[in-house]
Every structure is written in C-alpha cells, then in structure tokens.
Design goal:
2 domains; 335 residues; 5-stranded mixed beta sheet; Glutamine Phosphoribosylpyrophosphate, subunit 1, domain 1; alpha+beta; globular; binds aspartic acid; single chain
Length: 335
Amino acid sequence: MKRRTFIQNTAIGGLGISTGLAALACGNTSENESASKDEKMLVGSLPLVIATWDVKEATAKAWEVMQNGGSSLDAIEQGCKVEEANAEGQSVGIGGLPDREGNVTLDACIMNAAGDYGAVVYLQNILHPISVARKVMEETPHVLLAGKGAEQFAFEQGFEKTNLLTEASKKAWEEWKITSQYKPIINIENHDTIGMLAIDENGDISGGCTTSGLAYKMAGRVGDSPIIGSGLFVDNEVGAATATGLGEEVLKTVGSFLIVELMRQGKSPQEACEEAVNRIVKKNSERIKDFQVGYIAVNKQGETGAYGIHEGFVYTVYQNENNEKHIPDFYLKNS
Ligand code: ASP
C-alpha cells in the first residue's frame, strides 16, 4: 500500500487514526524515507476489532467502547460479554451446552498490551467469565484460577450466582444422553465461541477468548480457549492471534503463539494462520475431515488474516466504520 492509499484510508476511516499512531506512521520519518517504510508501519486504519464467527453485535460493542476513548482491553471485555450474555448461543456463556454430567463449565482468558494475562477454567455459575479473567489478571498475583477456587474468587469480587443451563440446552443434553454418542459436529457445535482481538487508537493490542467448550465433554475437560499461547496470544510489538474449533488440536500445536512468532519472523497474518492450520493438518491427515480449527490474526500494522480447515468457519471485522462478516480460505474446500 502506497502512502497515498494509507492517507486515503485514513480519511475513509475518519476517526480511525490516533495522533499517536499517525505520528508513528508518518511524523517521525525523514523526508527521504520512502513510502514503503510507512507501509510497513501501518497498513490498516485503527481502531480495529476482529473476532471469530459472525458476532457483529459483539464487535460493534467493542468498536463503540474504543470510539468512546476506551482501551482495547475494555473493548475486548465488553465485546466478549455480549456473546456471554446471549442465551441463544450454545457454546459460550449462558445457554452453553453442558458437559456429560449436565454442568455448564466455562473457560475464558484475556491478555493486554503489556503482556499481562488472566484466565479462568472450569468456572461454573458465573455469567461473565471474561470479566472474572480480567479480575484474575488485575487483582491477584496469579494468572489462572480453576473450578471452585475461581468461582469463590468471582463471588468475592461481587459476581452473582447465575444458573447457566437454559431449558433449551438442558433439553439438548437430555436428548444427547439417549445415545451418549460423542461426535463433535463441525461448525455447528462451535459456532459462537468467541475469540476477539482489538487494536485501539494508540496502537495497543489486546485479546480475549471465552467459551463453554465442547458440548458433552468429559467432566473436568479444559480446552485451548483459556490457555495462553493456544487459544489466544498477544504480543504488542508484533500482533495477536486467537483460535476456535477442536481445542485439543490447538493445544497440541500451541497455535496462537505459533502464529504470533511466525508474524515476528516476517509472515503476514494470513500466511501465519495458514501455517498454523497446516501443522495440525500434517499431524492428522486421516482425521481432519472430522474436526474444525479456525484461526484469526492481526499484526501491529493493522493487517488481518484468517484460515480454517473446513468451510463454515467465518469471522467478523470492524474497521473503517464497516462491521462485516468475512469468509476465509480453507484447507479443505467443499468438504
Ligand atoms: N476451542 C474451544 C474448545 O475446544 C471450542 C470452540 O472453539 O468452540 O473448548
């Protein structure tokens, strides 16, 4: 992208570019430095929000927070809360499908531009695990709290006890128990677990990930979503990535950290997402027809990327005043 295009984009983006970042992109370059230097510094306009699946209400909330001067961290928390509170979504927050015992157990994490991280795993009875994760990050000497301890901490922080098992999810679980066949259904079961990345007008990157995990999982199972480096990773110097899909495969390849490190080595977000999916595919050539993994990523320059194993995975980007669903490329087309 030429400098001119960048300036055009800035104009289209309107409110998008902060003085701080614009200075980073333009002000400090000497006269004879070329446009290509600018190109490296900022490609897309800011702020920017990108999230797994079709979650326009969540990305709109995150965008609104940043338009009102909030940080990317505030945007992530508020954006993720929208999906957590959506009882229709059966893979995150209230209404999430339960484990085999009928318990809705939640995993979530959040990471800020300073590289701080907080997470909760196997949390029950709390509507907003992303907010508890933020409290873990900001109010404790730890980074990850599990199960009863996490629940106890949430109560101490003023979170209320909430029944997360809706009638619809209870009914689905009761029907599932008739056969008790464990067969994850690609793209249906996982349609709205939310991984979200945001860059605010200061150019600071934050991310969050929140889920009820796989439906009918074994009691005690924890997926990739709350685990630093797997379901989410943020490095404010480089970029950020987050994952959705079969957490076991993401965990085994430490996918989000891998993507960020690949971007550090010079790959674009798109190339890095493709490489992370390819690592999983190589290990599972026989099995990949049976499971989905999708990644999204953003780099410090505001470029985005996404890639999935199967068609069906979508993601949402809010940038330049546009809040849109996108369809990425896939490893297996027409599967
Ligand atoms: N990655 C999540 C997990 O394995 C599930 C999902 O993304 O839907 O718990």
